[in-house]
Amino acid sequence: MSASAKSTRPVSAKSPVSAKPPMSAKSPVSGKSPAPAPAKSTISAPPSTAYKIVDVPEVHRDTIQRYGVPGTFVGPSEQESPWVPFGDKAALRHLAFDVRRNTFSNILWIKSAGVIGTHKHRGTVVMICLEGSARYLEYDWVAGPGDFIYETPGLIHTLVSDHPQGVKLFGWLEGPTEFYDDKGNFVETLDVWWYINHYETYCRAHGIPINKQLYL
Question: Tens of pLDDT along 89-107?
């Protein structure tokens, strides 16, 4: 066949033979596509400073109103929650009881340098030092005002205060606490029911009304 007889049909620019997929950007070092940039948070400060109650959408509003448990507030007066003696040199100011979770909250006040006996936690404990100072004989740190303490289940502690004015510790406790004597013998378990009885017995003996705000 002569050269003039050859087909002169143009090859399409979209021919499946010549078309190539677009190349993705790759790292010149590793040959791999770079990782996507992390998403940026849209909040770096409270999104609203409006001094008003805002009506927020809630699909389960009616159900929450029927079954939700309201929050509580306990003020500073002795009528709302008195200081209940806990031994000769300490007292507890009860703040909350949750019998469904065996959870309770209080302020422990060791009134002068002293010791709260050896005990074992069966749940998580969160504490903040409010006044004075405290430490555990088992550790080398000392907690002062504003310091945060977190305790996990199974740990054994001996709480002491070397401060002449003692210490006040806010605590949120989950689960029972087992107390032992100085020989390591088990003495008693303190759980939410013990703390309720501790509070109510004192209130009845001193004519203080039971504050239902303490019961979650």
Answer: 999 999 999 999 999 999 9
